[in-house]
């Protein structure tokens, strides 16, 4: 039997369960909520292995849910690949392409 984390109490699991009911079973936030719920029964280490993530990620999700809300589990702005061109450059390229197509 897995050791139960002091961080993971019944209130956090209840919040995760209610949040999962609200948003459904698909999406990244739902996956994080399912991992939190699974951690209560199976332990953080086994859950991290099953969801192919790290223990520290699951612990961070638990802390975010406990201290903030479901919104804290969403992907934050600024993540991902940065654009290679600016909006002005994109507009210029679109104008150039439309001129080439028109002729």
Describe this entry's structure for a reader.
This protein is an all-alpha fold and 103 residues long. It is built from five helices and no strands. The protein has helices at 10-23, 28-42, 44-50, 55-67, 87-102. The chain is elongated and about 70 Å long. The termini are far apart.
Q: Write down the Rg.
A: 21 Å
Helical amount among residues, as a percent range?
55-70%
What portion of the residues fall into strands of 2 or more residues? under 5%
What's the SSE pattern?
HHHHH
Question: What is the terminal-to-terminal distance?
Answer: 72 Å
Count structural domains. Answer: 1
Helix-strand makeup class? mainly alpha
Q: Low-confidence parts lasting 5 or more residues at pLDDT below 50?
A: none
* Morphology call: elongated
How would you sum up the major sheet? none
Tally of individual helices = 5
Which whole number gives the mean pLDDT? 86
């Amino acid at each position: 039997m897995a050791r139960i984390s002091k961080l993971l109490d019944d209130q956090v699991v209840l919040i995760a369960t209610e949040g999962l009911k609200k948003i459904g079973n698909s999406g990244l936030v739902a996956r994080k909520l399912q991992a939190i719920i699974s951690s209560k029964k199976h332990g953080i280490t086994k859950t991290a292995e099953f969801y192919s993530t790290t223990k520290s990620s699951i612990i961070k999700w638990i802390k975010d849910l406990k201290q903030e809300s479901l919104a804290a589990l969403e992907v934050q702005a600024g993540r991902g690949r940065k654009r290679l061109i600016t909006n002005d450059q994109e507009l210029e390229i679109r104008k150039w392409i439309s001129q080439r197509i028109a002729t």
